[in-house]
Amino acid sequence: MTERDSLHRFLIERTNVRGEWIHLDATWKALLERNAYPEAVRGLLGEALAATALLSATIKFSGSLTLQIRGDGAVPLLVTQVQVGRARSGEPEGHGRRTLRGLAHWQGAPETGPLETLCGRGNMVLTIDPGQGGERYQGIVELQGERLRDALRGYFDRSEQLPTRLWLAADEHGAAGLLLQALPGEVPDPDAWERTVALADTVSTDELLELPAQELLHRLYHEEDVRLFEREPVGFHCGCSRERVTEMIRGLGRKEAENILAEQGGIEVDCEFCGAHYGFDAVDTAAIFSAEGQPEVPRTEH
Length: 302
Fold this sequence. Notes:
Blueprint: E1 6-12, E2 17-24, H1 26-32, H2 39-56, E3 63-71, E4 77-84, E5 98-105, H3 115-119, E6 122-129, E7 137-142, H4 148-158, E8 164-170, E9 175-182, H5 192-200, H6 205-210, H7 213-221, E10 226-228, E11 232-236, H8 242-252, H9 254-264, E12 267-270, E13 277-280, H10 282-290
Parallel strand pairs: 5-11
Antiparallel strand pairs: 1-2, 1-10, 1-11, 2-9, 3-4, 3-6, 4-5, 6-7, 8-9, 12-13
């Protein structure tokens, strides 16, 4: 039985290759409880969720990384997001708690097939948002490739970032992935990148989903010196809240909110990521806008 909801980083010593391994168990099942996804959609969403977590661990930041696919096929929208909390004292930046969420929309009865068949013509967007006034980065590429791993390879190749390869798998029980990345600079083993990628290409879906990190890496790289770092926990979490929905309604403006109330008798908002429901009646809505423009009451301490 593989490790549950874990991410491991690793280095292949005396080479320029680093890597990551992830397995999602309860995290993946918590997401699946929200929607009865068809098998083809479920597989793509699971691979995207694993990929998003892996990609977030290649950069040092606290904030969110979002992978979005939009197309004109049977799966017109897929979104996965990882939120990286601030590292605790003594931990390097980027090692904070990772929480994941995701969703997909589909039409008809999608059948398992190539990525371009499932999603049609469209784009893949990667967005990194460090929050707290940090600079937001967004990369957009045309959706191409047989599998999601191929589309991500194309993204890294076309954006001239570090050479990166992923191997992804998902079923109804779990989602998993392996990532390799070539670091810049001269190394004594110039063939290491091609060799480690070729060995990773031998990994099977069952091995990704069933083997723990140490066993899988030994299977692939028993002739290499691999340094495996400690487990980093991963979990499911949605950041929606009544406060955030309140701010969204305030952003609509009083007139638009009152028009919705008149037409529907209330303002109902459902979170697609976690299924939470938020309802606002006329009194709730009036309270949202009655607070606008009121002076802040000074705080006193006794």
